[in-house]
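Task: sequence in, structure out. Protein: Dehydrogenase/reductase SDR family member 6.
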Amino acid sequence: AFAKEGAKVIATDINESKLQELQKYPGIQIQVLDVTKKEQIENLAKEIERIDVLCNIAGFVHHGTILECEEQDWDFTMNLNVRSMYLMIKTFLPKMLKQKSGNIINMSSVASSIKGVVNRCVYSTSKAAVIGLTKSVAADFIEQGIRCNCICPGTVDTPSLQERIQAQPNPEQALKDFLARQKTGRMATAEEVAHLFVYLASDESAYMTGNELIIDGGWSL
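Result:
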C-alpha cells in the first residue's frame, strides 16, 4: 500500500521466505530483522539515514485465560508485542527528532483496553500497553514534530488467523464462531487495515496524534 503511493519502503521480518515475496514490488527493500533483538535493530538504524514513518506491526496472539497463560507465554507475548515497539521507537526516534519530523504508527487491537475478549488475556494486556505507549510518546514529543498513533483492528482475515482456525479441533466451527461476532457479517481484509496505515502516514492526518483508531466493523459497539 505504501509502495503504491510512491514511498520508499524497508520491509522487515524474521521470516526471510515471506520477505522474498515482496521483492517483486518496486520501491520495496527487504531486510531480515528480529525486532526483539536490540543489536539487530541498532545495526539496521546505522544503515538508514532518514526515516519519515515507522510502522510497528510484529505481534503474536496467545489463546487462553490467565489460568492458561504460563510465565513463558506471558514473557514471549509481552516481549514481541510491546518490548519490540519500545526498542524500535527508542532506536529510530532520535533520527526523527534530528529531522524535526516523524510519524510512528503502532499496531494495537480492539482486544485491549477497548474491549474485553474471551481467551485473549495476555494478548489483550499487551495491546492495551501499546495504546499506553502510543499516547505517552505522542504527549512527550508533540512539540518536536513527532506524531504517534495506533491502529486497533477487530478480526482480520490473514494467513495467521487461518492458521489458528485450522489448528482448532473443529476448524469449520471455529470459522463460524469468528464470523458470528462480526456485526457486518464478514472480517476485515488486510488491505483495509493497510489503507488506514497509509492515511495515518499521510499529510491528510497531520492534525492527529495520540489516537487509537478502531477498525473493527462495529465489533466494539
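The helical segments are 16-20, 38-47, 71-99, 121-141, 159-166, 171-180, 190-201.
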